[in-house]
């Protein structure tokens, strides 16, 4: 009985960290949804999305989950570099060093996951590059970030097919280079997702008008992108180059995917922020717990996949074999329960804790006060399907 006050006090501190005023529950919820989308994209065989066929709606996870992660990574980067007031001077230099080192650690973890042979396009190497590319933009405010993201979103899909056709991707060495660069999530296009997320993170995300604007703005972009994809499809079908550019197909890096799926990610973040103003905030605690440690959840699901496939199938690369084992439901349930218990009894996710400890050891503590929302920022990721994406 004597230990009860201590346990109560510890639980109170952990709950305050998880649900305190310094944490944006809606951002965690969006991350949790992205993790579940990643799991579904990895482990379920989904049909092509057809609006009039509800049985195909699960296809929404393909491609959009990874883009949601990229946008959320940008949100988190802004939150840990000053939020609405970007850091400057020596504080910015320290923040940049921390982000660069986190990116390097993520790249190393990503390459270890690639070596497991699991048939997933591991997103961590791409994230590492995106973090490095974000460094020159740390001092920008939301307007500049949105304008830069918009320019890249419109221009780079026209360049991407030319880059994809480069001889460097040929042969076995080309596959290795693609894995190291995370080219399934090509950074020339995907930097737009990160920058728009950074722009969102420079807004006052706790205000109702801002949250509503984010949801409505993202919804408008989503309708525009997917609508234009439908309208232009017949006209570009006969031209391989235009078909590669003017498409909303998942993982295409096409113009309409960038606008439509980018808008979907923005709208999802806005909706999650709004939902967490309601009692659904409490119902969503398990999803928010997953979203509080997405790097751990991502890595664990791939390692479990590799272990189960190796034991039961003798081959970690057997995609259809692992899907036939119906691993999605038990693995998802285990991750949700495990993350919830960990968040409420231990706190920060284990991998997030290790990365932060290494960064503090090498670079030092944050240059700005740590925002509970973004402190695990640089460990987000994911996805796959088709045969490998997400």
TrEMBL record:
Keyword Ribonucleoprotein set for record: no
Heparan-alpha-glucosaminide N-acetyltransferase catalytic domain segment(s): 23-207
Keywords carried by this UniProt record: Membrane, Transmembrane, Transmembrane helix
Signal sequence extent: none
Highest taxon of the lineage: Bacteria
InterPro entries xref list: Bact_Transport_Assoc, DUF418, HGSNAT_cat
Segments crossing the lipid bilayer: 64-83, 120-138, 145-163, 183-201, 213-233, 253-275, 295-314, 320-344
Residue ranges of every copy of the DUF418 domain listed in the record: 226-355
Official protein name in the record: Acyltransferase
């Amino acid at each position: 009985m004597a230990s009860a006050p201590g346990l109560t006090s510890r639980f109170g501190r952990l709950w305050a960290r998880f649900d305190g005023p310094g944490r944006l529950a809606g951002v965690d919820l969006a991350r949790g949804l992205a993790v579940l989308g990643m799991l579904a994209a990895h482990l379920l065989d989904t049909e092509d999305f057809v609006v009039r066929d509800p049985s195909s709606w699960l296809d929404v996870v393909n491609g959009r989950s990874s883009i949601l992660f990229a946008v959320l990574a940008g949100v988190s980067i802004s939150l840990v570099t000053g939020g609405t007031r970007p850091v400057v001077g020596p504080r910015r230099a320290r923040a940049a060093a921390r982000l660069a080192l986190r990116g390097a650690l993520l790249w190393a973890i990503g390459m270890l996951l690639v070596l497991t042979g699991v048939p997933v396009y591991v997103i961590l190497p791409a994230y590492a590059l995106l973090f490095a590319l974000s460094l020159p933009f740390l001092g920008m405010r939301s307007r500049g970030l949105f304008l830069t993201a918009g320019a890249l979103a419109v221009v780079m899909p026209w360049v991407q097919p030319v880059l994809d056709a480069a001889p460097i991707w040929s042969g076995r060495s080309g596959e290795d280079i693609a894995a190291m660069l995370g080219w399934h999530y090509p950074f020339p296009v995907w930097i737009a997702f990160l920058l728009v997320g950074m722009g969102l993170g420079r807004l006052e995300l706790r205000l109702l008008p801002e949250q509503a604007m984010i949801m409505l703005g993202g919804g408008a972009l989503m309708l525009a992108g997917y609508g234009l994809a439908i309208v232009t499809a017949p006209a570009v079908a006969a031209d391989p180059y235009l078909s590669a550019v003017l498409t909303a197909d998942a993982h295409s890096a096409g113009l309409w995917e960038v606008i439509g799926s980018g808008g979907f990610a923005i709208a999802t973040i806005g909706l999650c922020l709004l939902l967490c103003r309601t009692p659904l905030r409490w119902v969503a605690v398990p999803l928010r717990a997953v979203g509080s440690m997405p790097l751990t959840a991502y890595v664990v699901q791939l390692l479990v996949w590799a272990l189960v496939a190796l034991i039961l199938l003798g081959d970690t690369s057997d995609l259809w074999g692992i899907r036939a084992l119906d691993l999605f439901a038990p693995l998802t349930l285990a991750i949700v329960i495990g993350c919830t218990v960990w968040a409420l009894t231990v706190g920060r996710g284990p991998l997030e804790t290790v990365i932060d400890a290494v960064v503090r050891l090498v670079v030092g503590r944050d240059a700005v006060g740590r925002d509970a929302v973004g402190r695990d920022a640089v460990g987000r990721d994911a996805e796959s399907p088709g045969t490998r994406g997400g």
